User: What shape does this take?
Amino acid sequence: MNRRQLLQNTACGFGSLALAGLLNPPGRAAAATANPLAPKAPHFAPKAKRVIFLFMAGGVSQVDSFDYKPLLEKEDGKLLSFDDARAVAKTGMGSKSRVMKSLWKYAQHGKSGHWGTELFPEMCRKMDDLCFLHGMHTEGVAHGPATIFMHTGSTNLIRPSMGSWVQYGLGSENENLPGFISLAPSMGNGGPRNFGNAFLPSVYQGTAIGRPGQPASESKIRNILNERRSDMEQRAQLDLIQAFNREQVRDRPGDSELEAVIDSYELASRMQQYAPGVLDIKDESQETLDLYGIGVKQTDDYGRRCLQARRLAESGVRFIQVNYSDNSNNPAWDQHSNMPKHADHAKAVDKPIAGLLEDLKRRGLLEDTLVWWGGEFGRNPFAQSNGTGRDHDPDGFTVWLAGGGVKPGFSHGSTDEFGHRAVENKTHMHDLHATVLHLLGLDHERLTYKYAGRNFRLTDVSGTVIKDIIA
Assistant: This one.
């Protein structure tokens, strides 16, 4: 290789030298040399190895889905006083509101006899696999604070997302893929903070694939393929860049950001060979595609993402979030004036989610995969402004879990007789966080990171493991 060829082929290496210089302020402490993404031992024997979080952005109405309240039908149309957090926050006082019954009929399903509406017929057929938490309550009455709180455990400080905490605590099972992936995350209501690492080392940042509004068939990892250079040429270039970077690390050790850059280069190189095959569903059978509703207009997008989630789970990704949202500050399930719109969203996700549960079960993956379904809060049992929609309800709502060590066909907690406020076995979002970590073998009080002079954790200074739901 002559001098001109050397300069042409290694220009990026000189750029990385400049980057390393910018990222390396003097005086940092020496850093550990071990791979921070290597698998780590849990605090105790886990029930689950991974999590698939099916995020229903905007808040599904609990009284229109899985929280049956006969009194709503009896009192439908009556003006009653409700102690509503949202109304108090807006006006400083409560007001009389018109009780609104469920728009969809309820029936009991499965051996458990749990109630569910015709809004989610496919999920209702999986009722005996589901573990319901009916006494949920959370922080924040608006989408932004509640969504950030659900993902990070805080409404005000910039804190690491749950997926980042899980990757920090357990590492990655597959060195060729990120340990935390968020499929089609919204850029509203927290945006990147919902899959960000905050003050945790940069290697624990979540990887976003796709975005709301983009067809799932086109959602790919950006820049995963290089059409200009062969694999051999890319490897030679990367080896030279990494040699320069390692010199910088030796000269000025302890720069976690530079080390994260080096690790990300290596991971990106391996992902080029491995990730496209994991995300490509072309080798799946037609029966599997039909199971997820792929090929049908209403269910194709979310079905593809749910199937990708299964493929990522069996490939060793620790935390996979499958978002159903849009890219605005008014998320999909946010029906303030048009509750019938819930039906359109339900048709888009119901069959794919039921298909995911069935597929995981067939493959023996449901036993050690925790599936979590729900939104940032629920919706009120009365009409907003006496109209045709429901406002936000952070005081009482429903989520369900499946697999991963929870009791199937089980219900925990309850709301009041209208489905408005959690009253029995109340479960705060911090309690849910603590329980998910516990099922992964992590003690939420011991999973800490020291920053700005104090130890932080996902559950802050709260959180109790819900032992009643653990199988």
About this structure: The longest helix spans residues 256-279. Residues 46-223+287-469 form a domain with the Alkaline Phosphatase, subunit A fold (CATH 3.40.720.10). Confidence is low (pLDDT under 50) at residues 12-33. The chain is about 35% helix and 15% strand.
